[in-house]
Input
Amino acid sequence: MSSPASTPSRRRGKRGRESNPPTPQDARSPPSQKPRTDDSTSTGDLQPMPTSPPAEAQSPRAPDALFSSPPQFRHAAIPLDFDVSSPLTYGTPSSRVESTPRSGVRGTPVRQRPDLGSVRKARQVDLHSDGVAEDVVETEQSLGQRLVIWGTDVNVASCKEKFQRFLQCFIDPLAKEDEDIGLDLNQPRYMQRLEEINMVGEPFLNVNCDHLRSFDENLYRQLVCYPQEVIPTFDMAANEIFFDRYPDSILEHQIQVRPYNALKTRNMRNLNPEDIDQLITISGMVIRSSQLIPEMQEAFFKCQVCAFTTRVEIDRGRIAEPSVCKNCNTTHSMVLIHNRSMFSDKQMIKLQESPEDMPAGQTPHTVALFAHNDLVDKVQPGDRVNVTGIYRAVPIRVNPRVSTVKSVYKTHIDVIHYRKTDSKRLHGVDEETEQKMFTEERVELLKELSKKADIYERLSSALAPSIYEHEDIKKGILLQLFGGSRKDFTHTGRGNFRAEINILLCGDPGTSKSQLLQYVYNLVPRGQYTSGRGSSAVGLTAYVMKDPETRQLVLQTGALVLSDNGICCIDEFDKMNESTRSVLHEVMEQQTLSIAKAGIICQLNARTSILAAANPIESQWNPKKTTIENIQLPHTLLSRFDLIFLMLDPRDEAYDRRLARHLISLYYQSEEKMEEEYMDMAILRDYIAYARSYISPRLSEEASQTLIEAYVDMRKIGSGRGMVSAYPRQLESLIRLAEAHAKVRFSEKVGTIDVEEAKRLHREALKQSATDPRTGIVDISILTTGMSATARKRKEELAQALRKLIQSKGKTPALKYQQLFDDLRAQSDTAITKEMFEEALRALADDDFLTVTGKTVRLL
Amino acid sequence: MPCVADWLNNPFSIVQGIFAQNVPNSDWEKKVTEYFREKLKENNATNWVPSLNDVPVHYLKPNSLVKFRCMVQDMFDPEFYMGVYETVDPNTNTRVLHFGKYRDVAECGPQQEIDLNSSQTVTSERQTFYCVPVPGESAWVKEISFFTELVLFVLNPQFYGYISASQARVSPSTSYTPSRHKRSYEEDEDMDLHPSKQKEQHLGNSGGGDIHGCVEPKRLETEASAGHHLISPNCSPPLDLNFPLPGEKGPACLVKVYESWDSFKVNDVLEVYGILSVDPVLSIVNSDERDSSTLDPVESMDTAEEQRVHSPPASLVPRIHVILAQKLQHINPLLPACLNEEESKTCEFVSNFMSELSPVRAELLGFLTHALLGDSLAAEYLILHLISTVYARRDVLPLGKFTVNLSGCPRNSIFTEHVYRIIQQLVPASYRLQMTIENMNHSRFIPRKDYAANRLVSGVLQLASNTSLVVDETQLEQGQLDTTGVHNVTALGNLITWQKVDYDFNYHQMEFPCNINVLITSEGRSLLPSDCQVHLQPQIIPPNMEEYMNSLLKAVLPSVLNKFRIYLSLLRLLDYSISDEVTKAVEEDFVEMRKNDPESITADDLHRTLLVARFLSLSAGQTTLSRERWLRAKQLEALRKARLQQQKCVNGNEL
Output
């Protein structure tokens, strides 16, 4: 790493003075002040300076040429119209050099890499000029071939050789990336890539820096510190191998190496002057992209007098217009010919740091990116990307004609590689690569935590500590946060099994349901919070919009799609209108959303857990009624919730006492003390993220046995009374809960304890929500069919009684409604409400026994 | 004081001196801050530094030391600058080292050139904040801080002489005497456009003897300079200075921070001491860049809007290069700026004030009772509200917020306006939000990121901590809220419930916690959530409200008014605890209450009663809860609830 002091000077050394017109003194100024990482070169690199072509002093471009541009006259093909002694030769773009004799890259043009620096040119591969590469300054020959690129410690030959070895040998031991599809993991990875290039014809080789690091730490360091020098060397190496192997391959231009994933993915906030001119990878969100800017790379001039033509390369955004024609010596006769000049595409992009990286209370930082050539228009505003590129800083001149300089630099990044982080959100690739990185210490800490015996209790008490008690509810939510394991049965035709756990909280108003929802929403990275009252079906799902500018149809996603792989918190679930709620049916079981609108028919993934809160229809929970009666939600929807909890205001003294103590403590404890007491929200978040992305437990043998037993037991309870008391859905819920509990322990196997806890929690939730208020028996059918078994039995009995009553009246074609009701009431020993009576009538009507018209009942 | 002029007038010479002495090593930077910190510690030294809040920019000498009391409105990207650079004289080939810190432009002599390749160059990083004067800052705050300065000008003849000599006409007798204040024609004209400004004007004229709009001269000056800017040729439309509240005036400032900028947050109130930079070159940059942009592709990467926002003309938005910056706990000039307990002076101040606390409280209660038309219960709750502050957050739950809904306010009367005026006289920063359909639909509440200009466009809800926001719901008529209106009402609701505002970043939202005291005046129960509703029961109905309120304000002695102000600001900063015994007692009490009436006593009631008890204790200067206070809190709550019950009965289906 070079010190910050040295970076600007090093940059300017290589790319030429940005603004100062070079003075003779400048040109001669010894580069000895530049840092040398390699001591042996410190004297050596002074040598070439005096020997450089004498033309340099006259030419403003000379220092550049010396430091960076390949003097092309080494190669055979020099256009005749070139004056060899002219300094302009230094800048001759290599692309015009027809071919290098005996080189394998014959016929494939080199493409300029503006991403590596505006003045630099990619080098030709020259198999015979090993070590005499243009930028290389020779050092003490006697000490062996220590050739390094000026200003660095990079030896081109060894660097090239190392990289070639890397390409030829590297086998990724932990290949797991999603882009590996179709690669043989036991073969050298990048050779297969080259083969792919040969077949596809896309001359870009993406190299994961992580691989490079595991292969050769030093090479990797050089790449990061001197990307401007090392990447062309890599290009050279890759091309040599490629054209060695596939000499007949026809590519648009030579292969360009694009490294990505440099060091750690850095936060924009950590960028500092030390990173200037280094290879960095940062993540962020694209907020704006400019129009395409054609940037002139090379100007074409023609003399109007003698038609002599010449090319001038762009130098820091300026063209040095030749004032004298070299052929006929006429002054000011050269004219720019636009359509013979060369341009490259360029685009300015503003990247903003991702919201997750931002410290609270500060506004996000932005950084400018320059994309070149085919990276232009690769990203759109709103995309989340990881960008690899070279960080640049350029001084700003106050005025081109005045020597004062603003003491501020402009910074930007020249993009080398983009990687979209959420491009797959709308497609269905299952293994979403979590971008969340954990440091080793963090992982250690988390693993340490997971070994604690009471980790489950610990985590659940860390959840929303300001909300008092409701331990089981918190545990349920905790399991929801972890989720089950994802299973894929597509090949057997059942598709995905839902791994997400859905929870419904219902209960009295003012029992901090909303607060719990808010907490969860704040905790998970992909949470969405909506209120049932305010959301429409469209807002939840997705809608199609016509872009006013392009007239293109655009799919805008709603809350449910946005919380794919997250949790969607829906408050006031009961206030939601019917059509909106119906959308949830699909989401909650199939985990997809189907859209058929305005020419777009698609299925979006919505693998979201739903945490909903509902208030009872009467403002207070009526303990005499069932859950369904209290919240008036269709049982079809309710049965899709794994756990339904009641949050009631318990009326007992001990609870009140504890609550009071808890609240008072809120009001006088200082903030620090609170933090000590509970687990940090950040740790909790990391713990969950780690478990979600790395742990996917499977059922063990004994766990399956326990599950089977549990299910059979549940079925048995009901069968005694002639009713179904458990459905496969309940079994699935149990499995999910058990898996989630195993995840809490960081265990890859679901054990019996997990199943036991799942059973317990499931039972607790049922006890609260599915207890038949009339009999006090837990009855699952309340939730699955909307009515308890006893209620149904009672209904039938009543209908039978009514039928008997009517039949006992003999053959009367019509009966008075009120009369019948009174008779039935008189006959029955239990209280009969009007509703019950009507229900019984309806049941009989369904049997085609009678019809009800107005106030009369007719027999059929 | 011989050196006073030097470090105030020409801080660069000091920095240069220190720089020259220590040049090879980098600790010269530390020494510079150390030097100025020491200088400012000397008694009253801070008052000698002219403040950008009071003195118009063009009266201040460029490159002199200034101070500025401001709120961070936006944070720009960090910038890299030349910390140290070298210049070369091409003729003599002499090399000189310079420092780039505290400068916008790398200076060099006429015959010199900057050597951009020098190995001595050090690149450093600094952060730019866009700062505006504290939004809604009360007139009295500006005035008092200005007068303390004025007194010092006069007390220090040497300094005074220096000031008047070097800075044109800055003297108390010419431009700054309050007597100079006259409404200009221009102001009269645009008063109709800015009702809030008119209000301020009212205050200036009618509110008490010593209240004169001292802000006025400055305001005129800023306007003048803005106007000047307008006239200048080929200039684009006037720059929006991005003040959160409509009708605000004052200098916005680009504050360049060199150290620990991570510790500052958006909406923090800062007092910065730094070097003023109004180099006209900075403005030239703007006009010139447009021509040269075709030449230099690097500079064209920002859009024109962005350039306008990020490098506005220095005459309009001066730059301050910060030497020292501190976060302010409060902006009340009557209190020592920093209330830490080590300093004996502040200790003394606090204990002195505490000794006379109860008479002040009694007087304040009386004053507010009169203001609330004789309703002492409402006045009591108003005091509690005014000293409330969010002192902690338990995960998402803010603790210590106490939003009061003052219901039963007469409709369409100037009563609410007068209540606001009284609050304005008491708290350092406040804003009255008129909740009309028009206002809700058309004003910008939530700050929004403008990506084209790359800045945070401010909104009404971007306020500093402890600002009093008075929401006047009596103005609300029936009508249709559009999308903006619904968003605004939701944002207001979120602000009250969670004490946070979700700023709109177009692609996502970001939560900014805040600490704003919201008082809602309404006829019936407010449609906004609130922590506690107090129904007003006027005892007196003055025939002429205007007169009544004016005479009320006139009757308060300025010294008493100042005591009120200290009282409210100071108590907010006190610590508080509850002893174990009282915890037990409260616990018992709660259990008992629940036993008797489980339906009506809920956890929420306990929450509220604990809050009332907290503020009640603090308002009496007690930092622990005593049994008596607890009982008193319960009593107050009972009274308040009884009123609501009564109201319910009267209105039948109300509530």
